Amino acid sequence: MIIKMINFGLIVLFKEKTLFKVLGDINFSPLLVNSFVQILHQSIEADLKGMYHFGSKDYVSKYKFIKMMAKKFNMPSSLINKYSVFDIDLVAKRPHEMYLNSGKFFKDLDLYQK
Question: Which of 1, 48, 56, 93 is the least crowded, having the fewest Cβ atoms under 10 Å away?
Fold first, then answer.
C-alpha cells in the first residue's frame, strides 16, 4: 500500500482504500468555511478594528480530527495511522500547539455566552 501524508483529498484516500499517516502530536483549531463566513460578517457588522485570530474555540490533534471526519463520513478509520512530527525530517521545525487563540474575537462580540 502507498502511504501518503494527509493534506487534501481525504475522501479520495478513503475511497481508494489508501493507508495514510496523520500527525498525532500537532494540535490546531479547525474552522468550517461556513463558520468563517459568519464570523467575517459579524466582524464587519460590529465594525471591529485591529488584528483577530479566527479559529474554533477548542483545539484538536490533526489525527483526532481526521478520525472524527472518518466517522462522520462513514469511512474506515483503520486506514489512518498516527505518527509524530519527530518521525519526519523537516527543514523547519513545527510547534506542537498550532491552534489559534480566538479569545479576543469572542470577548469583543460577547460570544462566550452563546
Answer: 93
Q: For residue 2, what pLDDT is reported?
A: 34
22 DSSP β-pair partners: 82
**pTM of this structure:** 0.73
Strand order through the sheet with 80-83: 4-5, 20-23, 80-83
Q: What are phi and psi of 108, to 5 degrees?
A: -65, -25
H helix and E strand count, the chain: 4, 5
The answer to whether the beta carbons of residues 6 and 21 sit under 8 Å apart is: yes
With 0-12 / 13-18 / 19 or more C-beta atoms within 10 angstroms meaning exposed / middle / buried, residue 95 is exposed
